[in-house]
Amino acid sequence: MNLQEYMPFGLQVEELIAFGAAVFVAISVVTVWRTLLEKAPAQRRIKAISDRRAQLRQDLGAAKRRPKVETLNVARRTLRHFKLMTGKPVENASAKLVRAGLRSRDAVTLFLFAKLCLPAALGIGAVVSIYVLEMFKLGPQGRLIASVLTVLIAFYIPDLMVKNLIDKRMHLLTRALPDMLDLLVICAEAGLALDNALVRVSREIRMSGPEMADEMELTSAELGFMSERRIALQNLYKRTNLPAMQALSNTLIQSERYGTPLAQSLRVLSKELRDERLMKAEEKAARLPATLTVPMMIFIMPTLFIVLIGPGILRAIDGLGSVLK
């Protein structure tokens, strides 16, 4: 039986097999391509931005340990009674708490309530302890000075606690900044847009730098729904108050406004910040001998003199003792 007799249009068997294989490969490629093809990317992106914005607002708006509702109600009523819920103090307190990582409205309320009530509570406690219970034996002037100092210290306690939180958070952000910049450069060179690059970077540094990851996610969400992207990048510096973040936000704004290549701008910024960190390290190393001079004179030199001169002094004392005998 000869198959060539049944071939249409005078085709060869090898040609028919090659044609069938080509058709099969084409159908397979089209099937896989349609399977992997993203449907409605714009709608998916809008929905993802909306969901992420809602999640960030929910997570960042709620305190880690939400206080009781009764305490919040008492604090709100007290602040409204003294008209302390509006004006410049609220803005300043909100800016400080945002830099400390506390972004909820309840944190501002409790902070202002603590600044209002803590001096009165500790002042009353100090007056009762000093004047009524006489727990401390002080003169009239000493009692007055102790009471006034207690009130002043109580007034500055909330500010000191918030400043401590700000310093710790700035230290953590500064430590995570080099890794963030390197990852951002890699994402930009890979062709990712700024929004996607920030999301990717925040996902990668979530374990090592959760504070930096939160800032990157919040910036990405603000870039998605704010009318001006420049404001979102400026808010990144306002929330952190770091010079390196200011340089980063200015670089990103310049890249958005003038079309500067993002990867090149970030690489230049990363090199500048790395050189700046190296200069600071060299400066600290240069100050080290002068810093160690005083501790060496106080702690090391006396011990060294005792070890070196002590045996000779003991022998001299023994010799003088034997002569006097």
Characterise this structure:
The protein starts with 12 loop residues before the first helix and ends with a helix. It has eleven helices and no strands. The protein is an all-alpha fold and 325 residues long. The chain has helices spanning 13-36, 41-61, 69-81, 88-99, 105-132, 140-189, 194-204, 210-225, 229-240, 243-258, 262-324. It folds into three domains: 3-32, no CATH class; 67-161, no CATH class; 173-279.
Element layout with pairings:
Elements: H1 13-36, H2 41-61, H3 69-81, H4 88-99, H5 105-132, H6 140-189, H7 194-204, H8 210-225, H9 229-240, H10 243-258, H11 262-324
Compact description:
The protein has eleven helices and no strands. With 325 residues, it is an all-alpha fold. It has three domains: 3-32, no CATH class; 67-161, no CATH class; 173-279.
Number of helices: 11
| N to C succession of SSEs | HHHHHHHHHHH
Q: Radius of gyration from the CA trace?
A: 35 Å
Low-confidence stretches: none
Major beta-sheet overview: none
Number of E strands: 0
Structural class: mainly alpha
Shape: flat
How many separate domains? 3
Mean pLDDT: 81
Portion in beta strands: under 5%
Roughly what percent helix? over 70%
N/C terminus separation: 138 Å
